[in-house]
What we know:
This protein has 15 helices and 18 strands. The chain is an alpha/beta fold. The protein folds into two domains: about 250 residues, Aldehyde Dehydrogenase, Chain A, domain 1, CATH 3.40.605; about 180 residues, Aldehyde Dehydrogenase, Chain A, domain 2, CATH 3.40.309. The chain has a seven-stranded mixed β-sheet, with helices on both faces. Strands 7-6-5-8-9-17 form a six-stranded mixed β-sheet, sandwiched between helices. It has a three-stranded antiparallel β-sheet with strand order 3-4-18, with no helix packed on it. Helix 9 links the parallel strand 10 and strand 11. The longest helix has 25 residues.
Amino acid sequence: MAIATINPATGATEREFEPHGPAEIERRIALAHKAFTELKATTFAQRAAWLRRAADLLDAEAEGTARLLVVEMGKPIAQAEAEIRKSAKGLRYYADHAEAFLADEPLADPAAVGASRAWTRYEPLGPVLAVMPWNFPVWQALRFAAPALAAGNTGLLKHASNVPQTALYLDGLFERAGFPVGAFQALLIGSGAVAAVIEDPRVRAVTLTGSEAAGRSVAAAAGAAIKKTVLELGGSDPFIVLPSADLDAAVATAVTARTINNGQSCIAGKRFIVHAEVYEEFSRRFAERIAALTVGDPLDPATEVGPLATRAGRDELAELVQDAVAKGAKVLAGGAVPDREGWFYEPTVLADLSEDARLVQEEAFGPVAALYRAEDAADAARIANQTTFGLSSSVWTNDAEEQDWFVRSLDAGAVFVNGMTVSFPELPFGGVKASGYGRELAAAGIREFTNLKTVWKG
């Protein structure tokens, strides 16, 4: 894929960039390594001050940066501005909490191990490579950068090739905030150049948010180099509705959960598993609300669903729908590529999917919802767990026993009860099964890329 800004609403190429060659890649890795020697010697207080300054810059520049996100990947303008604000909040969160998260932890009874004192400490690893996707191009990158920099690591960002201007904006953000030169840099490289960066001995770890295929490739390269990885991969999250649920709230939230970011979110509700007692009413109201969404120019504040980020992504989504319909699925809303320029797809609801439809197992990365009828709670959990993914989940029930049962029964990195899955700086984020391993955010996220060092004193 070319490194270029191609406006998804028009299909027009707005800017192209030359990939960094071997000499520039070497220069940037060397700079990241040098910056690490400086950064690890600074205090938590100093790094916190720089993070807060970066957050202030994000807030001050939110309007222009949000428009950049719209042009590069088609996010509706209001959602783009919200992403910038959320990213600033994430920077401030680690400025406030990093020191406590990484404080030394003394052993309560050192005599038990024959010591006068014993404790553990967290130390930064060095330069960390972050391979990031385009769908939340600022938030995804900064939810790595904030804890990494707060811990004293440096970052190398290999961003998606269709958001190069966002990558370059982030490239300069932390230096402008006061961090040492080279503390956080973008690498304008294609996927084929990633393995060589991972192999470089100065790069100490890798984090990736992206597809399952990309995760397997990066994990293989990192495994060969014996380097730590955190992988946040795909998801086909279940959104389960039981008879005791507040149906008004469930329907309204389901629409948002499926179409936020034009349906291009790993943690979006994708499979709507509804108890037979409320299936007909839910499916009717859900399809009506999906069909009524305003699709259009993502720069128009009235737009609710914009284009998909890439033509390939739009075509892949259309193929999944065509496959499902060919195998007997019923279209309750949408189901077609609209006759307009850009990479749009109609918000779509499908029902009665056959077990051999690709959509049953594969992730629909766009505004396409799959409806499933469940006979009871056990059947709903069976359907929810039948995919290879296990990122997050949403369960709607006002029955306390059902709530507890689903929390225990769902194979997922998170369960949201009577609410839509959202990532928060305060909560660990990540999945199981083919959705990856490791955690981002909260205390768990900052500790992923540190050396937990044991100290024993006689």
